[in-house]
Amino acid sequence: MPVDTFTGAGEVAILATAFVTLITTLATLLYQFVSAGRRHSWEIEAARRHVEVSLQAETERPQLALKVDEAEVKLNAKIDENTEISKAAFVEANHMNEKLKIQNAAFDKLLEVAIGRAEVRNDAAEQRNEISASSIEAVKSTVDDTAE
Question: Residue 17: enclosing H or E segment and its boundaries?
Fold first, then answer.
């Protein structure tokens, strides 16, 4: 009796499922190889770029240090210049303060003289008033004496 290898629809379904599973597994394996290859090439590219950037930084470091030194020298020169300007302004302000003190003292003296003159004038006016008052009293008493 001949043996039938395919006897039913269930066996065909199992065979088809096994075949599809084998193809899917092979496709997944192929995808993983391609993906791993891409990842590996990306990692190699990233490492290459890192090395390039490191080498470029190493070659630019002395130039950058020189630029920093030049900028520091310029900055210190500006600071020194500003310090000199500030010192000159401070000296000028002190001179101005001295001038103001001298002018203030002169004004105080003028004020004292003016006040003194005003007091002298006031005293003179008071004396004139007293003399006038005493003269008026003398005239009144003379007039009273003559009228009696």
Answer: helix 9-147
